[in-house]
Write a structure and sequence with these properties.
Strand 9 and strand 10 (155-162) form a beta hairpin. The chain contains 2 helices and 25 strands. It is globular and about 50 Å long. By secondary structure, the protein is mainly beta.
Length: 363
């Protein structure tokens, strides 16, 4: 493990291509020996309200976790898939909940907390399900989840609210009312709402009186909101989505740049971890297997969330452990979605090969 620590320290210390000096407190990420920390459990069942039958809702795989601190515990919102016989993308995902008092050993709730149901949003959520949650907290204790609604035709970034992380109220697709419904049926995923640290508490931030969210899969876009429900993507002069971070040839993010955990406002910029996928063509990073997902970081101007002031030249976290190099996604995956400050440490939670949950820790 010591070699792994030194390797990650070197990457994170030298990986940012910038003329500025920043201290982000993200300097010593390592993977503890307990990895993977969460896996599937075929014994857990619940009655699916769509099928009206008992379902082993996390029989197949558990991965891509959102993370939040509540009552001095770490809570993970987990993407859980039901049918191990179905091919990649053909299962139904439901979001489960687990908690921990040390950030590593988790206890699961027996039933999912967000899933396709009989509401008006079934048309967006089924049969693919509710996927890839990121969760934030407002100043007054409201929890906001950005997740993917997947009907196996179009992926839509959607929003849900909760007071307790267990009972969620769906608000529907994030872009449903923006620009006369222009982006309602646009493929959208991975919403990373900008937060700030208030002591040890990470809460939603406002800039110029508005909430902001990085989002996107092929490239990173920015959106704003006044109510955390209705979001308006940033557009360029042609009225098209504005790409503020794009893939780069021959680098770890040569195929796509997909938002990771909620971004954090620090002293000198807005820090966003993102998931880069290596291309499977000639423009791939030759130092990584083609198709690999690894984690990078980009920093935006604290007064202008569209302006990039630094970006990692290489990956900060990549697949190295056996379970990160096998499973549903055999090219190798470390896909970050949760980042919390807990017991004076940073915990970065990620999915591994669409099969397990892993964690990397910064002391």
């Amino acid at each position: 493990m010591k070699k792994s620590i030194l390797y990650l320290v070197l990457l994170i210390s030298l990986g940012c291509n910038t003329n500025h000096t920043f201290d982000w407190d993200f300097q010593t990420f390592y993977k503890p020996n307990e990895n993977p920390i969460v896996e599937a459990d075929s014994t857990l069942t619940f009655v699916c309200p769509v099928k009206n039958e008992l379902v082993q809702w996390q029989k197949a795989d558990v991965f891509n976790p959102g993370a939040i601190i509540k009552d001095n515990k770490v809570y993970l919102l987990l993407r859980c898939e039901d049918n191990p016989e179905a091919i990649l993308g053909g299962r139904t995902s439901r979001i489960g909940l687990a908690y921990s008092e040390d950030g590593i050993h988790f206890t699961k709730y027996p039933t999912p907390v967000l899933y396709p149901d009989s509401s008006d949003f079934l048309q967006y959520d089924y049969p693919g399900g509710c996927e890839d949650p990121r969760v934030v907290e407002t100043q007054d204790g409201l929890y906001v989840m950005a997740y993917t609604s997947w009907n196996q035709e179009v992926a839509r970034l959607s929003i849900a609210f909760s007071k307790d992380l267990i009972n969620w109220e769906k608000k529907g697709p994030a872009f449903a009312r923006a620009y006369d419904d222009l982006f309602l049926d646009y493929w959208s995923k991975s919403g990373s709402i900008i937060t700030k640290m208030d002591g040890d508490r990470q809460i939603v931030a406002k800039i110029d009186g508005k909430y902001w969210m990085y989002w996107g899969e092929k490239f990173i876009n920015l959106a704003w909101s006044e109510n955390l429900i209705d979001w308006y993507p940033s557009l360029n002069e042609k009225g098209e989505l504005k790409a503020i971070v794009e893939p780069r040839s021959n680098k770890f993010d040569s195929h796509l740049t997909e938002c990771g955990p909620p971004a954090i406002m620090m002293d000198h910029g807005i820090v966003l971890f993102y998931n880069g996928k290596n291309s499977e063509a000639e423009d791939s990073d030759p130092d990584l297997p083609k198709g690999t997902y690894s984690v990078g970081m980009v920093v935006f101007d604290i007064n202008n969330p569209e302006k990039v002031i630094s970006r990692s030249d290489t990956y900060l976290l990549k697949p190295t452990l056996p379970h990160e190099l096998s499973g549903q996604y055999k090219s190798g995956t470390t896909f970050a979605e949760g980042l919390v400050y807990y017991q004076s440490k940073w915990f970065l939670y990620y999915g591994t090969a669409d099969s397990y949950v892993g964690v990397a820790i910064s002391e």
